Amino acid sequence: MVEWKISDGLTSYEDALQFMENRAAAIAAGDADECVWLLEHPPLYTAGTSARREDLREPDRFPVFETRRGGQYTYHGPGQRVVYVMLDVAKRGRDVRCFVRDLEAWVIATLGEFGLTGHIRDGRVGVWIERPDRPALPDGRMAEDKIAAIGIRLRKWVSFHGISINVEPDLSHFDGIVPCGITDFGVTSLVDLGLPVTMDDLDVALRHQFDAVMESRFRNRSCA
């Protein structure tokens, strides 16, 4: 059983972290069900285990939280759906690489419900949207924008942290960091792409595709 938890308003990062750590411990002990938590944070930056200090361009703009999840600097704020996944990876095959691929496939399938094609790129964490409406990069590559970030941590084979998908955040807030250490590409959102998608719309798609993708891939153990 996976419990789905949706929080209205803005949830402080400290409260979210405490909940995730407690729930992950309870799942590992067999005392609680797995949990997917959908929420929004007030504006803040988080630093993953690979964060470089020089990538924090405006350290005084928003609170900065050091975290032990994978990845570099990310932004969270209103208009962004944060998806915290407290799932038992031991019961899901004990393969971290496959688990991350499952999360990526889940995001891509969710975006597909809105007519978007998400992409995974080697060396660039997260999910990307091609922008043929923009000039190509100097080296000839197509312009792309990041629409979703992924960063997890495991404790006793239970995951926490997770995914963030941009619905309608203030994209200028990303200017205070180098998102995930990548400078050649930009950041976008569902609304920035011209899609009138609400947070509720995204939540419905996430729930639908969780069963269709995450659980299906686990049962069939596909890591492609």
Give a summary of the structure in a few sentences.
25% of the residues lie in helices and 28% in strands. It is α/β, with parallel strands linked by helices.
List the helices and strands and how they pair.
Elements: E1 2-6, H1 13-28, E2 34-39, E3 44-47, E4 64-66, E5 73-76, E6 80-86, H2 96-112, E7 118-121, E8 124-130, E9 144-155, E10 158-166, E11 186-187, H3 199-220
Parallel strand pairs: 1-2, 3-4, 9-11
Antiparallel strand pairs: 2-6, 3-5, 6-10, 7-8, 8-9, 9-10
How many alpha or pi helices? 3
Record field, number of beta strands? 11
Mean pLDDT: 92
Distance between the termini: 25 Å
Q: Report the C-alpha radius of gyration, rounded.
A: 17 Å
Largest sheet properties: 8 strands, mixed
Write the element-wise H/E pattern from the N-terminal end onward: EHEEEEEHEEEEEH
Proportion of helical residues: 10-25%
Q: Give the structural class.
A: alpha/beta
Shape: globular
Low-pLDDT windows of residues: none
Quote the beta fraction.
Answer: 25-35%
